[in-house]
């Protein structure tokens, strides 16, 4: 008795091969995404300090005292 369909091992092998190929296609984008995320995570403190200095330079504190 001979089967005409794929065996279980062939199906598993084909699925794993498809997953491997998809992962290989996505790896460069994944690495770039991780690098960009890490860059912003590490430099977020300095970026916020620069943003605060920039904001205070263009929008200085008011000299008037406000009474409620």
Taken from the alpha-carbon principal axes, the silhouette is rod-shaped
What is the number of helical segments per DSSP (H or I, 4+ residues)? 1
Number of strands: 0
Instruction: Tell me, rounded to a whole number, the average pLDDT.
Output: 87
State the share of residues found in helices, binned by percent: over 70%
Low-confidence stretches: none
Largest sheet: none
The computed structural class is mainly alpha
Strand content: under 5%
Description:
With 68 residues, the protein is mainly alpha-helical. Helix content is 75%, strand content 0%. It is built from one helix and no strands. The chain has one helix at 8-58. The termini are far apart. 0% of the residues are buried.
Fold topology:
Layout lengths: L7 H51 L10
Which features does this protein show?
68 residues; mainly alpha; 75% helix; rod-shaped
In short:
This protein is mainly α and about 70 residues long.
